[in-house]
Amino acid sequence: xxxxxxxxxxxxxxxxxxxxxxxxxxxxxxxxxxxxxxxxxxxxxxxxxxxxxxxxxxxxxxxxxxxxxxxxxxxxxxxxxxxxxxxxxxxxxxxxxxxxxxxxxxxxxxxxxxxxxxxxxxxxxxxxxxxxxxxxxxxxxxxxxxxxxxxxxxxxxxxxxxxxxxxxxxxxxxxxxxxxxxxxxxxxxxxxxxxxxxxxxxxxxxxxxxxxxxxxxxxxxxxxxxxxxxxxxxxxxxxxxxxxxxxxxxxxxxxxxxxxxxxxxxxxxxxxxxxxxxxxxxxxxxxxxxxxxxxxxxxxxxxxxxxxxxxxxxxxxxxxxxxxxxxxxxxxxxxxxxxxxxxxxxxxxxxxxxxxxxxxxxxxxxxxxxxxxxxxxxxxxxxxxxxxxxxxxxxxxxxxxxxxxxxxxxxxxxxxxxxxxxxxx
Length: 425
Prior knowledge:
47% helix; single chain; five-stranded parallel beta sheet; nine-stranded mixed beta sheet
């Protein structure tokens, strides 16, 4: 690649970086502190526009006052950049900035074979912070060349905690004991429920920004990368999944809905959407891996605002908004999330597994005012608790709080906003 173009991109990005808005401090920044001194590459992955570049700027500002080599591969002038150009890039860095020992590479998955350069330079004592927007691609490359020498971090859109900081609201001690504080938190949560946590959208409140993220995922992250021919089917699948958040689906049923001949094609497309961090697929809990694989999946979207801007009538079902927020909050905290089916087809929204034996059951409901709803949600939990020999469970609602005791078991009912701000699970 032409070195003059590389030099131009480096200088422009360096100038832009000096005036970059650092935004609110992300919650994972403190966790990253323990990885600063270890030699492993830190790989930050997440959906487009979730704040990965800003997080890199925050890491630079907090931990690397003496500077780093920083480069963003999401630039149209770098279309011809390939793995052989890394040495030339390094030479230009040396000429402009002198010797540094840390690289910041943004959206590196755009360069096939990038892991070879990283592995070689790691052997020479260089530290890397890397971002990317494709989980499958990064994990494959990390598994081949960087095994045992990398740390993976997933960055999501703003959590409710981060949303409050973005809004400049500080949760005071014992906030839920004060009517005014509780009212303010509820107001913010109602807004977060609808708008989600994509930083750029929250800053400008322009829905076209979210639609552009969706289009970029479809066309740049999936169609172009995987040479997709059935683009119409991919678009229809994306729309269908985002319009059915919180619902169960099977690949065979989607094959019929989309008019695609192969179930494997549908599964591949669904995997691409999940690997691009647009969706989250949750499996049925079973001690049999085969049963987990063949059972229906449950679909969630990475952000409520994104689903609202793209999907068909998603906003008309507040319960799905609430369930989606809970799914994302659980995913931030743990990787092992399932739904549970008890006998008589009674469904529990979430089974969360931590460690080999620790299991928690969580049901999500708008409220429990309706007797039929109450019986359904409580009944499913009671049956699941009996089957799994558990004595506690949780129902998360929009604004209901109580304890339900039955036969020595306790089901705690709690508002989602309070659960998020107070608890670890």
